[in-house]
């Protein structure tokens, strides 16, 4: 289905769905809704959709001159590649991650810091994007604390917050696609 007006194409719809689906699946594991043994299922989704689709969306945002969208989608696309490679290499014993909990926690905290400063930029954007980034920096800091303190309950809280974040991202994508298809605001982004 070709869009008659290419100027209305919004790559955020692709980036948000790639981020949202991958985040929901991993967060369901972190929240304890799905077994930890299911983490390998996240790897191809993180590489193909969470990673690559967001990288593509970020590149398309460059063409639109959107610094925020470019930075967000390329950075979080790279995050999903990092996460997938960590699982893949660690799971195949190419990396010894047995003593890496505090370093993984520190990496997640750094992602939290990055997301916190990106959240500040959302004060000028839609309410949906504001809420996605609000719940994402909280998610990263909870997951970081869970790793740093070896506290599974905090990791579970991070998983639940990640579920909220992923669902908000899915809604954002849904709203962009629906509003674009109908040519009017059907679903508000705020």
Automatic annotation (TrEMBL):
**Keyword list, A-Z:** Membrane, Transmembrane, Transmembrane helix
How would you describe this protein's topology in the membrane? Answer: Multi-pass membrane protein
Q: Where in the cell is it found?
A: Membrane
Membrane-crossing segments per the record: 12-35, 41-60, 72-91, 103-121, 128-151, 157-177
Transmembrane as a keyword of this entry, yes or no, is yes
Q: Which InterPro entries match?
A: Gpr1/Fun34/SatP-like (IPR000791), SatP (IPR047623)
PANTHER family from the UniProt entry = INNER MEMBRANE PROTEIN YAAH, SUCCINATE-ACETATE_PROTON SYMPORTER SATP
- Record's family? Belongs to the acetate uptake transporter (AceTr) (TC 2.A.96) family.
Question: What name goes with this protein?
Answer: Acetate uptake transporter
Protein source organism? Rhizomicrobium electricum
């Amino acid at each position: 289905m070709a869009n008659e007006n290419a100027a209305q194409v919004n790559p955020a719809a692709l980036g948000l769905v790639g981020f949202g689906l991958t985040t929901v699946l991993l967060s369901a594991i972190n929240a304890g809704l799905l077994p930890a043994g299911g983490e390998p299922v996240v790897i191809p989704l993180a590489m193909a959709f969470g990673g690559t689709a967001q990288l593509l969306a970020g590149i398309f945002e460059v063409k639109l001159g959107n610094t925020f969208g470019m930075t967000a989608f390329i950075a979080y696309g790279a995050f999903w590649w990092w996460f997938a490679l960590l699982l893949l290499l660690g799971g195949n014993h190419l990396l010894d991650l047995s003593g890496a909990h505090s370093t993984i926690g520190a990496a997640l905290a750094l992602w939290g810091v990055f997301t916190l400063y990106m959240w500040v930029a959302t004060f000028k954007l839609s309410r949906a994007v504001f809420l996605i980034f609000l719940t994402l920096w909280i998610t990263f800091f909870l997951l970081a604390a869970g790793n740093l303190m070896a506290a599974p309950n905090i990791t579970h809280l991070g998983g639940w917050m990640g579920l909220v974040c992923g669902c908000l991202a899915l809604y954002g994508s849904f709203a962009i696609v629906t509003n674009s298809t109908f040519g009017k605001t059907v679903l508000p982004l705020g």
